[in-house]
Design goal:
71 residues; mainly alpha; globular
Length: 71
Protein backbone atom coordinates (compact mmCIF):
# COMPACT_ATOMS: atom_id res chain seq x y z
CA UNK A 1 0.00 0.00 0.00
CA UNK A 2 2.79 2.43 0.87
CA UNK A 3 4.49 2.01 -2.51
CA UNK A 4 1.24 2.48 -4.42
CA UNK A 5 0.38 5.58 -2.40
CA UNK A 6 3.87 6.98 -2.86
CA UNK A 7 3.73 6.42 -6.62
CA UNK A 8 0.26 7.92 -6.95
CA UNK A 9 0.53 10.92 -4.63
CA UNK A 10 4.25 11.56 -4.22
CA UNK A 11 6.68 11.55 -1.34
CA UNK A 12 5.24 14.46 0.67
CA UNK A 13 1.50 13.78 0.43
CA UNK A 14 -0.57 13.24 3.60
CA UNK A 15 -1.79 9.92 2.17
CA UNK A 16 1.82 8.76 1.90
CA UNK A 17 2.41 9.72 5.53
CA UNK A 18 -0.73 7.82 6.55
CA UNK A 19 0.37 4.74 4.61
CA UNK A 20 3.81 4.84 6.24
CA UNK A 21 2.21 5.24 9.66
CA UNK A 22 -0.01 2.21 9.00
CA UNK A 23 3.02 0.23 7.86
CA UNK A 24 4.85 1.22 11.02
CA UNK A 25 1.92 0.12 13.18
CA UNK A 26 1.77 -3.23 11.39
CA UNK A 27 5.50 -3.77 11.91
CA UNK A 28 5.15 -2.89 15.60
CA UNK A 29 2.29 -5.35 16.06
CA UNK A 30 4.46 -8.03 14.44
CA UNK A 31 7.30 -7.25 16.83
CA UNK A 32 9.48 -5.78 14.06
CA UNK A 33 10.44 -2.72 16.04
CA UNK A 34 13.34 -1.47 13.90
CA UNK A 35 11.14 -1.54 10.80
CA UNK A 36 8.30 0.08 12.73
CA UNK A 37 10.53 2.90 13.90
CA UNK A 38 11.87 3.54 10.38
CA UNK A 39 8.38 3.71 8.86
CA UNK A 40 7.02 5.93 11.64
CA UNK A 41 10.01 8.26 11.41
CA UNK A 42 9.37 8.50 7.67
CA UNK A 43 5.75 9.47 8.31
CA UNK A 44 6.84 12.04 10.88
CA UNK A 45 9.35 13.53 8.43
CA UNK A 46 6.56 14.05 5.89
CA UNK A 47 4.46 15.85 8.52
CA UNK A 48 7.45 18.03 9.44
CA UNK A 49 8.11 18.96 5.80
CA UNK A 50 4.44 19.83 5.29
CA UNK A 51 4.46 21.98 8.45
CA UNK A 52 1.07 20.79 9.64
CA UNK A 53 -0.72 21.01 6.29
CA UNK A 54 -2.94 17.98 5.75
CA UNK A 55 -3.13 16.69 9.30
CA UNK A 56 -0.99 16.59 12.37
CA UNK A 57 1.63 14.16 13.56
CA UNK A 58 0.01 13.41 16.92
CA UNK A 59 -0.84 9.75 16.31
CA UNK A 60 2.51 9.13 14.63
CA UNK A 61 4.36 10.60 17.62
CA UNK A 62 2.33 8.44 19.99
CA UNK A 63 3.08 5.28 18.04
CA UNK A 64 6.75 6.21 17.76
CA UNK A 65 6.90 6.71 21.52
CA UNK A 66 5.36 3.27 22.08
CA UNK A 67 7.92 1.66 19.78
CA UNK A 68 10.76 3.48 21.58
CA UNK A 69 9.51 2.16 24.94
CA UNK A 70 9.40 -1.40 23.59
CA UNK A 71 12.93 -1.26 22.18
Amino acid sequence: LWRLTHERHGADHPATAAALASLGTAHAQAGQLDEARAALEGALAIHERRKGKGGGPGAVLGNLATVALLQ
